[in-house]
Amino acid sequence: MVSPLTTAIQVRGRIQDPHLRHDMSFDGDGRASAFALPHRNVQSASAFVYVTAAGGTPLTGWSATGATFDGSGFVTFDAVPSAASSLRAVYVHSTFSDDEIGHFTAVGGSVVGAAIEAVRWLRFDGLKRAAWAAGDGTTFDDTKAIAELDRIEKALIAERDEGEIGGALYGWGETQGDFK
Hints:
This protein is α+β, with helices and mostly antiparallel strands.
């Protein structure tokens, strides 16, 4: 049976924020049990440790191990991994949490309104973006993201307003004259 497209799924589709799977490995150092993940909004996750046969060889593969995943992007293994041990985290993440998507929907009032709210959050985050140049001639300009977000917001607002005008204030037939 096909799942219905919930409002949250529709909003995620409009803002291109699907749940993505990520698989990454860490090397234990014998001291740390917590590691930062490169993503936040971790939805579901599993942790593994690489198991070796007696004597250290041959390698036998990954085995599930206890760990806690924090939605803000940390994995903490139940025990401190030994030095040179291999650890693995497999998880699903997204840019926005389900609570944030719910907030966007409540404030925006519709799928398009929620998409507008998400773009506004991204644009505010974009204020931290920068442009720089290195002495070797390398340049980086991430400030163009703001202009793109502005363009997307304007298009979404036009779509929202077109829907409100076409359906709420008057219908297509009411705008047509008696043309002969």
